[in-house]
Amino acid sequence: MREGVLIIDIHTRILFANRSYLDFLDKTEEEIVNKPLREIRPGARLPEVLATGKAILHAPRMEENDDVYFVNMYPILTDGAITGGISVVTFMRDAHDFRSELDAYEKRSRQVLQRVNKANSTRYTFDSIVAVGENVQAVKALAQKAAATDAAVLLASESGTGKELYAQAIHNASPRRGEVFVAINCANFNANTLESELFGYVEGAFTGARRGGKMGLFEAADGGTLFLDEVSEMDMGLQAKLLRAIQEGRFRPVGGVHEVEADVRIISASNADLQDYISAGRFRRDLFYRLSTFQIRVPPLRERRGDIPVLAQTILSSLAVKLKRRAEISPEALDSLMGHDWPGNVRELRNVLEASVYLSADGLITPDSLPEHILRRPGREQRLPLAQRVWDFERAEIQKLLQQYGNTLEGKKKAAAELGISLATLYNKLGRA
Question: Long-range contact list for 313-316, CB < 8 A, 24+ apart?
Answer without folding.
Answer: 314/130, 315/349, 315/350, 315/353, 315/354, 316/353, 316/357, 316/365
